[in-house]
Amino acid sequence: MVEKAALRPTDVILEVGPGTGNMTVKLLEKGKKVIACEIDPRLAAELQKRVQGTPYQTKLNLMIGDVLKTDLPFFDICVANLPYQIGKNNFRPPPKVESSVVRIEPRNPPPPINFQLVSPDFDIKLKITDILDKNGFEKKRARTMDIDDFLG
Ligand SMILES: C[S@@+](CC[C@H](N)C(=O)[O-])C[C@H]1O[C@@H](n2cnc3c(N)ncnc32)[C@H](O)[C@@H]1O
Description:
The protein is α/β, with parallel strands linked by helices. It has 4 helices and 4 strands.
């Protein structure tokens, strides 16, 4: 994953969920700075201990909390291993889930956005439900769908 990220020595990297820091140390080797946001304070303490007294200590900004509720500082690139650190072949029988490494790059230049005002009674929840209903997806939920359903 670190290889795929093609990190540059000038990159400020955001790592979501560093755990005890197995990937963090690799990111610290490659980038200028790592902002690591970990929800579990015990794991964060382990990571802090791991870098203490090493040259990486000053390159790591460790934040404790839920990344979704945290005000994050500026970063250039996000590298994270959130849900499935174990591949499906580690299980017998293999679970019916797929894991992927996803690389998302912002478009440069950014596409033009046609901002439009919506009426005060616009309800995004109703809009989405309406679209799902019209396309026969009212009973489909991510947890009950497989990859073919998504691709279809
Ligand atoms: C699959 S582990 C990855 C650990 C480590 N990055 C690695 O590659 O070995 C997921 C990590 O994300 C953390 N985590 C889960 N939800 C989080 C959230 N909402 N905000 C921050 N960290 C989260 C977990 O505590 C755990 O350390």
